[in-house]
Specification:
Elements: E1 2-5, H1 11-30, H2 32-42, H3 45-52, E2 57-63, E3 68-77, E4 82-90, H4 99-110, E5 116-122, H5 126-134, E6 138-141, E7 152-158
Parallel strand pairs: 4-5
Antiparallel strand pairs: 1-2, 2-3, 3-4, 5-7, 6-7
Keywords: Acyltransferase, Transferase
Pfam families: Acetyltransf_10
Protein name: GNAT superfamily N-acetyltransferase
Length: about 160
């Protein structure tokens, strides 16, 4: 398994990965219909394509040479001092095998000026909350924008 920059040819596989991962993770929280709606909007080809050229960002995939097992997307703000981890998803059957940790480590290395990484996690997604806590993230607070249907936990990790 290796981590590399995502490209145009990866977008369909990433979209499939996101749909599968979202259903496995969020069907029990939001219901399959709402997950379909979110996936159609947030993970459309146009939305994914825009990430390829987003300024001050990194769009990565975990690839074993045959298939993509995970993806991550992050942006830097505040003159590069703060990294916002927008997405980090791993196929359900590959979770627990170190793929997410590899992606997170690479994101952290991609932003040498960064002093902090911040992520928003659905509070009911216990596996994700546990994943981030095990990697040095702690609770930071509530997001600036709130949505009535979700309960978001903001977590941060200081970088050296």
């Amino acid at each position: 398994m290796f981590v590399r920059t995502a490209g145009e040819r990866d977008l369909e596989a990433i979209r499939t990965l996101l749909a599968e991962t979202w259903h496995a993770t969020y069907d029990a929280i939001y219901g399959p219909q709402r997950v379909n709606e979110i996936t159609a909007e947030w993970h459309s080809m146009a939305s994914l394509r825009a990430r390829l050229t987003h300024p001050h960002s990194e769009f990565l995939v975990a690839d074993d040479g045959e298939a993509i097992s995970g993806m991550a997307f992050a942006t830097a703000i505040d003159d590069g001092k703060l990294v916002l981890l927008r997405q980090l998803y791993v196929l359900p059957q590959k979770q627990g095998a170190g793929v997410g940790a590899m992606l997170l480590e690479e994101i952290e290395q991609c932003f040498p000026e960064a002093r902090m990484v911040r992520v928003e996690v659905e509070r009911e997604n216990a596996a994700a909350v546990s994943f981030y806590r095990a990697r040095g993230f702690s609770d930071f607070g509530r997001p600036a924008q709130t949505h009535p249907e979700v309960s978001i936990l903001v977590m941060e990790k200081p970088l050296a």
